[in-house]
Specification:
single chain, about 190 residues, alpha/beta, Translation Initiation Factor IF3, five-stranded parallel beta sheet, 9 strands
């Protein structure tokens, strides 16, 4: 019989953290009740990362994410393999001084990166940097190009909520602090822009 975990009303990344703890504590089958799509998607990705089978059901205004560990899911599945590099963009501009110049520099940096031979494994956007993944961003095509070349684009869900952009994400994955921190710790190199 599956264990049940009620994670409704919890702020990001608590639903993911509680789910991970329950799985690490020995739960083989787990049903997690959440009340928003971001938590649902974050728990789904966690389950997939941990080699669980994942099923999602809708119950009224809530979601039930059913996770089942596969017999060959070992402890090694908990931590991702090292990635070579992560670029961390925590603002909608580069440097201090002129905002107009900083925004132009960030645009040029992302556009140049999309044409560069060397690519990071991930680009993570936080704070006002999440504006770059929303519709109307001057770098959407470059970010889509990077995504299509295998670069994972992550945007902080809490930051998107703060700026009212969660429904306007045009590229990348709405993520959470748990996945973002995990990405930083797994990286051999983190470059902050």
């Amino acid at each position: 019989m599956a264990e049940r975990l009620d994670a409704r009303g919890l702020e990001c990344p608590e639903p993911v953290v509680l789910t991970k703890k329950a799985l690490e504590a020995g739960a083989v089958e787990l049903e997690v009740l959440v009340d928003n799509k971001t938590a649902r998607d974050n728990i789904r990705r966690l389950g997939e990362k941990l080699s669980c089978t994942v099923e999602i059901a809708t119950s009224a205004d809530d979601f039930v994410v059913k996770l089942k560990k596969s017999p060959n899911a070992g402890e090694g599945a908990v931590m991702p393999l090292k990635s070579s590099s992560v670029i961390f963009i925590n603002s909608n501009s580069v440097g201090q001084g002129s905002d107009e110049l900083g925004e132009a520099l960030l645009k040029t940096l992302i556009n140049t990166l999309s044409e560069s031979a060397k690519k990071p494994d991930k680009i993570i956007f936080m704070n006002s940097g999440v504006q770059m993944v929303a519709s109307g961003s001057p770098v959407l095509e470059s970010l889509k190009n990077l995504r299509d070349q295998g670069v994972e684009v992550l945007a902080c869900g809490t930051c998107l909520d703060y700026f009212g952009l969660k429904d306007k994400v045009a590229v990348g994955t709405i993520s959470n602090m748990y996945d973002i921190l995990d990405s930083f710790l797994a990286a051999e190199k983190v470059v902050t822009i």
